[in-house]
Amino acid sequence: MAEFNIKILGCGSALPTVRHMATSQIVNLRDKLYMIDCGEGTQVQMRRMRIKFNKLNHIFISHLHGDHCFGLPGLISTLGMLGRTGDLFIHAPKNMEEYLQPVLRLFNKGLPFCVRLNQVDTSKHALIMEDRSMEVYSIPLNHRIPSCGFLFAEKQKEAHLLRDMIDFYQIPVKFLRQIKQGADYTTPDGEVISNKRLTRPAEPAKRYAYCSDTAYFPAIIPAISGVDLLYHEATFLEADKARAKETYHSTASQAAEIARQAKVGKLVIGHFSARYEDDNSLKKEAAPIFADTILAKEGMVLPV
């Protein structure tokens, strides 16, 4: 299993169907879990995919349409019943507090943990969360209400030590940390050993961008340029382009065009309209524009 992957819990749009669940994803970076959106049924999908609830500390909500956040109160309640004690951080547009606090007061009194809200300015591309492994940035989107996507940027890992060289120069353990971080080593005789002789570079850091829901919006391209994996909503076919524009959503072709211009590694499309019986029709429109296009599907695990 890849160290950095995306688990698709739901990839449907607003109207429920028996084919798709409401939008939600889990970003897994070396067993640290971050949730994106939390539509109805999210915690059931977590059970189906055997995702550990207690590993989840950060939830990112793109906007306050029900198919992206109606699962949140139930998930918080379940975390309380499971005995969680650590803080839960929810990063969301400013009106999240107006939605969530009455529910918490009415149904979740006496929670054994604190729910901490981080208000996200959806109009700015900015750093909104950072820990030892990851930086998360907001991506302004163009939707009917304040909305943003998210860019998950893995921090560059330290270089790998070349054990045979460390042994050859008999380097004491106390210097190894500095060497992994790029320092040269000076022997007791004063010889400077270049860091390049003692280490090999770690694999390049990976990036994942999540963009849902939005009208066709080329302004996001600088923020997502060159990402390893892009999730972009593809609610409609080109035949329904007028409806896409009216509702501030994208067509599959438009999603592919964004991926092409941004020169991303792979594109996964989702947020499928309930009107289509066959999701493959969306891929057929996207693939000629961006060949490396994948259809999202519940239960899918995608390496970044």
Spatial order of strands in the largest sheet:
6-5-4-3-2-1-18
Q: Compute the gyration radius: what is it?
A: 22 Å
Work out the strand percent.
25-35%
CATH topology description of the largest domain: Metallo-beta-lactamase, Chain A
SSE blueprint and pairings:
Blueprint: E1 4-10, E2 24-29, E3 32-38, H1 42-48, E4 56-60, H2 66-69, H3 72-81, E5 88-93, H4 96-107, E6 115-120, E7 127-130, E8 134-140, E9 148-154, E10 160-161, H5 163-168, H6 176-180, E11 185-186, E12 192-193, H7 195-198, E13 199-200, E14 207-211, H8 221-224, E15 229-233, H9 241-247, H10 252-262, E16 266-270, H11 280-286, E17 293-295, E18 301-303
Parallel strand pairs: 3-4, 4-5, 5-6, 14-15, 15-16, 16-17
Antiparallel strand pairs: 1-2, 1-18, 2-3, 7-8, 8-9, 9-14, 10-13, 11-12
Provide a short characterization of the protein structure.
This protein is an alpha/beta fold and 304 residues long. The chain has 2 domains: 4-157 and 203-303, Metallo-beta-lactamase, Chain A (4-Layer Sandwich); 160-200, no CATH class.
Structure overview:
Helices cover about 25% and strands about 30% of the residues. The longest helix is centred in the middle third of the chain and has 12 residues, at about 95-105. Strand 3, helix 1 and strand 4 form a beta-alpha-beta unit. The model has no long low-confidence stretch (mean pLDDT about 95). It has helices spanning about 40-50, 65-70, 70-80, 95-105, 165-170, 175-180, 195-200, 220-225, 240-245, 250-260, 280-285, and strands spanning about 5-10, 25-30, 30-40, 55-60, 90-95, 115-120, 125-130, 135-140, 150-155, 160, 185, 190-195, 200, 205-210, 230-235, 265-270, 295, 300-304. The strands form 4 sheets. The chain has a 7-stranded mixed beta sheet. It has 11 helices and 18 strands. The protein has about 300 residues and is an alpha/beta fold. The chain folds into 2 domains: about 5-155 and about 205-304, Ribonuclease Z/Hydroxyacylglutathione hydrolase-like (Metallo-beta-lactamase, Chain A), CATH 3.60.15.10; about 160-200, no CATH class.
